[in-house]
Amino acid sequence: MPVGEPVDLVRHWRLSTVDARTPDEHALLLRQLLDLEGLGPEAVGGIAVASSVPAATAALREMAARWFRVPLVALGPGVRSGMPILYDSPREVGPDRVANAIGCYDLYGGPSIVVDLGTATTFDAISAAGEYLGGAIAPGVGISLDALFHEAAALRRVELVEPRSAIGRSTAESIQSGVLYGFAAQVDGLCERIQDELGPATVVATGGLSELIAPFTRCVEIREPWLTLHGLRIAFHRNHEGGVSG
């Protein structure tokens, strides 16, 4: 299962989403991260955002204008994505899903399926012509585990490593089997159903938990950890011809 990386990805960081974070706080965090890498604010030539939290999007817009004085593209309605959205209501499609589809089609063409293993597990289908067709949404691994441990007091969190067999011989192994093999089976099952309608398609996995689940699937051909960032970069360029390439 090859692991790809978008062209021109120079640095990457992961931060938690805090709705109440102010534009000044966003600017401080970003400048500190750049400083850790020996970079200054002049390294930022533009900002692209995929956000479904309006308050966070507004704060980032103000940060970009006030502290970095660079253009910001927030993927969503009214932004040129270069990809027809064939959802019944295109405004309902999450910007991260659109970014994934843009990045996947650019790298691998279509038909293709993106499996994003994050807070939710999402499945997105792209046609051979580069159209976003729709997909499926399921509770993510983290959400499901939180519910399991909260509702079943006798169960405790365990290290998620491959068990000796699918038939767990301890509570820890049973949870490992259920999570790793169970979610992998969910991915395979939904991808097979989508391909029944779409036809043979390249299956690409992304998201923070793809490294954990994708190796146990049969259908995932490629892991692309930074697919969303690749799609965002493309969207930025489609809306700002003079945008930076990194």
Automatic annotation (TrEMBL):
Coiled coil: none annotated. The active site is at D96 (proton acceptor). Its cofactor is K(+); NH4(+). The keyword Cytoplasm applies. One of its GO terms (molecular function) is pantothenate kinase activity. K(+) binds at D116. Substrate binds at Y87, G94, P95, D96, R97, T171. It is found in: Cytoplasm. ATP binds at T119. InterPro entries: ATPase_NBD, Type_III_PanK. A monovalent cation. Ammonium or potassium. Gene3D superfamilies: 3.30.420.40. It holds the Pfam family Pan_kinase. Catalyzes the phosphorylation of pantothenate (Pan), the first step in CoA biosynthesis. Homodimer. This is Type III pantothenate kinase. It comes from Aciditerrimonas ferrireducens. The gene is coaX.
